[in-house]
Design a protein that fits this description.
235 residues; two-stranded antiparallel ribbon; 10 helices; globular; 73% helix; mainly alpha
């Protein structure tokens, strides 16, 4: 887990808890915490520069959200997902992020939204052949801007909860170039629809993108299981 600058020691307890929550979510998203990895409260506290109290509360909340899971006599660990679990996550994301894309298209002509979306497209194009971390970060920027333009905080909170459990960085690396390039074209379709102000098309494009993403992630999971089975037979 990479350390992050902690708030002041005099910061309110709630601020410290949010600091730990945000840090753990980012560690999971970036792949620094793997599925099934156990969290030691003292180690987390030391890493993020806080006492054990905020860590315990952060773990309790993330367990309630389903990001972490708690097992008696073992403690908290990063939730591990089956193929079925991944499919269910992406089905929920289709509903939420599809509607977010529709709202963004409906709001695109306000303020500087169109320019921000064009900037996102350029960022995605510029990082297409970069390393997977830069590519993943660029796609996160796109989704962040999308939620800003949609302007619905409830949808944003729900969508982020569903995004963090799936290690985007790891799966992007394992999927390979064909899926990365296909995903880029899907993002372009979403952006084109949003810039055109076509909410229905934007929603369809987002749903299609997430459906394809679910298939790709499940394929990676199946490949991983096959490799593990082969290793077990050789052992």
């Amino acid at each position: 887990m990479p350390p992050r600058t902690p708030p002041s020691k005099n910061a309110p307890a709630e601020t410290l808890v949010e600091h730990v929550i945000d840090s753990l979510r980012e560690a999971i998203r970036q792949g620094h915490l793997a599925q099934g990895e156990r969290l030691v409260v003292a180690d987390v506290a030391k890493t993020y520069g806080v006492s054990v109290g905020p860590v315990r509360e952060a773990i309790r909340r993330l367990t309630g959200e389903g990001v972490l899971e708690f097992t008696p006599h073992r403690g908290a660990s990063v939730r591990a997902y089956s193929e079925r679990g991944v499919r269910e996550i992406f089905q929920a994301r289709e509903a939420i992020e599809g509607y977010v894309a529709r709202l963004a298209a409906e709001n695109i002509h306000r303020a500087d939204y169109a320019q921000r979306m064009r900037d996102c497209r350029k960022l995605l194009q510029d990082t297409l052949h970069a390393d997977v971390k830069k590519l993943s970060d660029a796609r996160q920027v796109f989704h962040d801007v999308l939620y800003d333009i949609a302007g619905n905080e409830v949808l944003k909170e729900a969508g982020l909860r569903l995004t963090f459990p799936v290690n985007r960085l790891l799966f992007t690396e394992l999927m390979g170039r064909p899926r990365i390039e296909a995903s880029q074209r899907e993002h372009e379709d979403i952006i084109d629809a949003i810039l055109a102000g076509d909410g229905a098309r934007a929603e369809r494009a987002m749903r299609a993108h997430l459906h394809a993403g679910a298939i790709a992630v499940c394929d990676v999971l199946e490949q991983s299981k096959t490799v593990q089975r082969r290793r077990s037979k050789k052992a």
